[in-house]
């Protein structure tokens, strides 16, 4: 015959386990916080940079920002941008699945992904990227030309100095906007021009916003000098005016300090 289940004792034991877990989590947070203050800081800039690079690859628990500040003498996003841009590629400990050569990585995040996957292909063995034919590319998004009936109606609004409601191209499909009389005249001249004016931005910015799907491209550059293709974290599906402001600020992705 089994012993009766002690409900209260089980709950008390569970509460003790949870309390111990929370204490361990608090201790871990405190230890992580001390990494910034307790990190060795060589006075020699060359030694500091050498130490920061070695710690970057061997101590992933230390935030990149702390190591970047130590290596560059700068702070925040500027430090991360300079530190990661000057970081040289290195061999990983993961071999190519085809030729066996060690795969080359550009960042410790890439190294971590490779280790988790356990395999990959080197640049020599990777299949070539096929670019789509220009004839097959999707035409740039925008508002279609006005139908004769639509143009006639809008012209009446413009002649009478009246506002009008139109459906304009938006990230999520058609979007209803109220055009002022001046915006109606712009829409008659060019639907994209009128839609941009109603959105509070210039025509080129409006079309670029549609093409980007509302995402903001990182303002940093890769080691090859090309514009980083990653998106700024938290900058998706922005409305046109906010999107233009985020893009103008030159925000960075999570790799380059965002």
Strand arrangement within the widest β-sheet reads: 1-2
Instruction: Tell me, rounded to a whole number, the average pLDDT.
Output: 80
Largest sheet: 2 strands, antiparallel
- Counting helices, strands and paired strands, the structural category is mainly alpha
Q: Which percent range describes the beta-strand content?
A: 5-15%
Coiled coil: 11-38
Keywords: Coiled coil
Can you walk through the features of this model?
With about 260 residues, this protein is mainly alpha-helical. Helices cover about 50% and strands about 10% of the residues. The protein contains ten helices and four strands. The strands form two sheets. The protein has a two-stranded antiparallel sheet. A hairpin with a 2-residue loop joins β3 (about 165-170) and β4 (about 175-180). α2 runs antiparallel to α3 (about 65-70), α6 packs antiparallel against α7 (about 180-190) and α8 (about 190-200) crosses α9 (about 205-210). The longest helix is centred in the N-terminal third of the chain and has 32 residues, at about 5-40. The radius of gyration is 28 Å and the shape is extended. It starts with 6 loop residues before the first helix and ends in a 9-residue tail after the last helix. About 20% of the residues are buried. Mean pLDDT is about 80; it is low at about 130-140.
């Amino acid at each position: 015959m089994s012993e009766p289940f002690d409900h209260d004792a089980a709950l008390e034991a569970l509460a003790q386990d949870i309390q111990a877990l929370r204490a361990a989590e608090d201790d871990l947070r405190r230890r992580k916080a001390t990494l910034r203050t307790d990190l060795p800081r060589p006075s020699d800039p060359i030694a500091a940079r050498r130490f920061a690079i070695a710690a970057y690859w061997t101590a992933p628990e230390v935030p990149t920002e702390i190591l970047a500040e130590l290596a560059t003498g700068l702070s925040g996003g500027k430090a991360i941008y300079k530190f990661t841009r000057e970081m040289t590629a290195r061999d990983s400990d993961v071999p190519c699945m085809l030729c066996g050569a060690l795969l080359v990585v550009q960042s410790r995040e890439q190294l971590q992904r490779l280790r988790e996957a356990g395999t990959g292909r080197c640049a020599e063995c990777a299949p070539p990227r096929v670019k789509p034919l220009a004839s097959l590319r999707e035409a740039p998004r925008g508002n279609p030309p006005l139908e004769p009936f639509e143009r006639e109606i809008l012209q009446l609004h413009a002649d009478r100095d009246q506002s009008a409601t139109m459906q304009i191209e938006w990230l999520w499909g058609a979007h209803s906007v109220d055009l002022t009389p001046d915006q109606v005249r712009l829409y008659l001249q060019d639907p994209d021009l009128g839609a941009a004016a109603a959105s509070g931005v210039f025509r080129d910015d409006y079309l670029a916003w549609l093409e980007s799907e509302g995402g903001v491209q990182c303002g940093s550059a890769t080691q090859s000098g090309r514009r980083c293709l990653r998106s700024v974290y938290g900058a998706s599906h922005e409305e046109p005016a906010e999107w233009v402001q985020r893009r103008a600020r030159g925000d960075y992705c999570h790799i380059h300090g965002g």
